[in-house]
Amino acid sequence: MDAVKLYTSSAEREVFETMGALYAIIMSLEYLERAFARDSVSAGDYTAECNKLLLQYKSVSQMVSNEELGEFTVKYRLNCPAAKRRLEVGIPSTIEHSNIGSGLSVNNAKHVAKAIRDFITTMDGLNLNMRSVDKLHPLLSDLLQSINAAPFVPGDFEWKQVFRDWLIRLNQMKASDELDDDQVRQLMFEVEKAYNDFNDLLDHSE
Question: What are phi and psi of 178, to 5 degrees?
Fold first, then answer.
């Protein structure tokens, strides 16, 4: 019996290989989410690997087609509810639920310095007209992670949810998409306000 060919040209072959890579990324994320839920992987390792897979998905998915995630999983019969949820949110569970930093053996001053540095880096980026998704997403992800790691910041600190919402919004866009002037202005306002509130918390914690 002759083998069935999936492609007849190098271009078609590249498409199938890319779809295979996308499939592998989604299923790897599914297994990672399940492992983290079973406490089989540390928060630090989970966060690093999850961030890597999310970035890989965003990059590879744009090389395949304009299919939505739901369409892709149905078409290729993927059973991956945890991965779909994580891809829709666009950030690791540790960051989404403010668990990052728990149990890490670093001193408070290091957390504070990192958070302040990430605030300043984000504001500098916006001031330098940095507005594309692939530039802003890592900045906001690092900033939220730093805020979550600061021991004196309460769980209900309002800017945590604000930045989660921004990350989710950016995750729904293409990597090459850019925020418009009003969105950049709003984001800058919120980052500056969050920075001031963060410093107020720091002052009262001393």
Answer: -125, 150
